[in-house]
Amino acid sequence: MRFTHFFFLLYFLIFLNCKQDKLQLSKIEGKQIQITDSILVHPEIEAFVKPFRDNIQKDLDSVLAYSVDTYSKNDGHLNSALGNFMADVLYSEANPIFKSRTGKEIDMVLLNHGGIRSSLNQGNVSKRTAFQLMPFENSVVIVAIKGAQIDSLIDYLKRSKRAHPISNLKLVVDKNFDVVEAKIKGKNIEQNYTYYVATSDYLYNGGDRMRFFKPNDTVYYLNYKIRNTLIDKFNKVDTINPVIDDRFIQIK
Amino acid sequence: MKRRNFIQQASAGTALVALGSFGLQSFTSSSKLRKITILHTNDVHSHIDTFGPEDGRNANKGGVARRATLIEAIRNENPNTLLLDAGDIFQGTPYFNYYGGELEFKLMSKLKYDVATIGNHDFDNGIDGLFAQLPHAEFEFVTANYDFKNTILDTHTKPYKVFKKDGVKIGVFGIGIELNGLVAPDLFKETKYLDPIEMSQEMTRILKIEEHCDLIICLSHLGYYYKNNPDLISDLNLAKSTKDIDLIIGGHTHTFLPKPTVVKNVNNENMLVNQVGCYGINLGRIDFYFDANKNKTANGTSIIV
């Protein structure tokens, strides 16, 4: 009987202790709410953003240069005026930086046809033009690869049969797309020589099925956006007048 | 008490999941029903403006000024709300290129974000670029598996943060993705990447046992799941390999989920993994209901998603 009392007391004490209720997770509800135009714009937030937006619009549209004609990446067979322009700009803008940091020079440039996202229209050229041509945040990388891998790069170009932007590489193919001439900066390609190829980080990482950049001796990240090479060029020149040339041609 | 039974019932197009009850550690004196609302975004990528009407997939969607209205309305309905972001706040529109993330952080502060974690793109202007914008953020960053000791960010992030809302203790910790191979080394500098599973286990131990949290949330930028690389660490794999996490809010993979995913953790207990796509098109909302265990025996937690 005493024991029963003891247990009763013990039970009572425990009950008192737990009278402070324990939090219990009883239900979880999850959903996703889409932000649509049925939700009103918050006036205070909108007013805060507006000056920033206006400033960007103004800057994006301020005239930097003039384009003589309208250039599309699809004009031309194996090289296009627009592609040539973008590859040459990458060379002219990135090479001095690369040289000052490493003492080395870029040997050639390769970009991809698909990476040109708009045409360059006749008339005023602004920062917005650069954002349209190159909306992606890709940056310049310079990859050190041997001549043997340059051969794979050339194989890629002749197999794809399209105007991928190149600079400082001269490529002539016959009617069967066999190489007649392949030169970098006017010189024949040496198998064991190391070439510094400038491209984008996207392509370096295998974008557009470009698999010849790895393995490599070294890769240099310039932390310089492809788009900014264009903007820097637009700031330097008054007129843009690129041409289709003989850097990559087919003789029939 | 620890066992969570999984009973899935189809109910008017939603899944109702019943869990075995599990005791929570806070002892409180009030017995009212408490509701904690978790709102979350991920991979907003500087998308401050609503998409234009001509945009192919996202026409007229998103926009921070609309998100602000929605969040304000939810906070008015339930003041016990936390607003979280799972990283990649930066990069994607000229706002970032022009202002380096200043506007993103200022707006998130105005929307009263409580805490965020760091995504790989938040290093796009380098660790110095991220550091330079921190004064504009009135919220804190949590990351448990980036060791910033030898970087400028040292002491500027925390592994976790504990909030108390209506007597409910909520622990939020951050987990980041491996930066090597994803971000140029000169951008993340000497940031050390620590194992996400080990650090999550450490965080849940601290939050559960030392901090006595009632609710544990992981803000992750690991990515939802990699079907071509299923063993790679991801939110689903982290969920399966850990315990005591109630909710993983993910990012990185820009995954649009039809509803939050119910995953069994290492103790075979159910928990949630969620992600809401990208670009501020969606806001995730998870409501946690707590009641005091006065008249109840173990009758479980229902998950309605």
TrEMBL record, chain A:
One of its GO terms (molecular function) is hydrolase activity. InterPro entries: 5'-Nucleotdase_C, 5'-Nucleotdase_C_sf, 5_nucleotidase/apyrase. One of its GO terms (cellular component) is outer membrane-bounded periplasmic space. It holds the Pfam family 5_nucleotid_C. GO terms for biological process: nucleotide catabolic process. It comes from the Bacteria. SUPFAM superfamilies: 5'-nucleotidase (syn. UDP-sugar hydrolase), C-terminal domain (SSF55816). Signal peptide: none annotated. Residues 72-214 form the 5'-Nucleotidase C-terminal domain. PANTHER family: 5'-NUCLEOTIDASE, 5'-NUCLEOTIDASE-RELATED. This is 5'-nucleotidase, C-terminal domain.
TrEMBL record, chain B:
GO terms for molecular function: 5'-nucleotidase activity; metal ion binding; nucleotide binding; UDP-sugar diphosphatase activity. InterPro entries: 5'-Nucleotdase_CS, 5_nucleotidase/apyrase, Calcineurin-like_PHP, Metallo-depent_PP-like, TAT_signal_bac_arc. Residues 37-255 form the Calcineurin-like phosphoesterase domain. Transmembrane segments: none annotated. GO terms for cellular component: outer membrane-bounded periplasmic space. The keyword Nucleotide-binding applies. PANTHER family: 5'-NUCLEOTIDASE, 5'-NUCLEOTIDASE-RELATED. This is 5'-nucleotidase. It comes from Algibacter luteus. The lineage of its organism: Bacteria, Pseudomonadati, Bacteroidota, Flavobacteriia, Flavobacteriales.
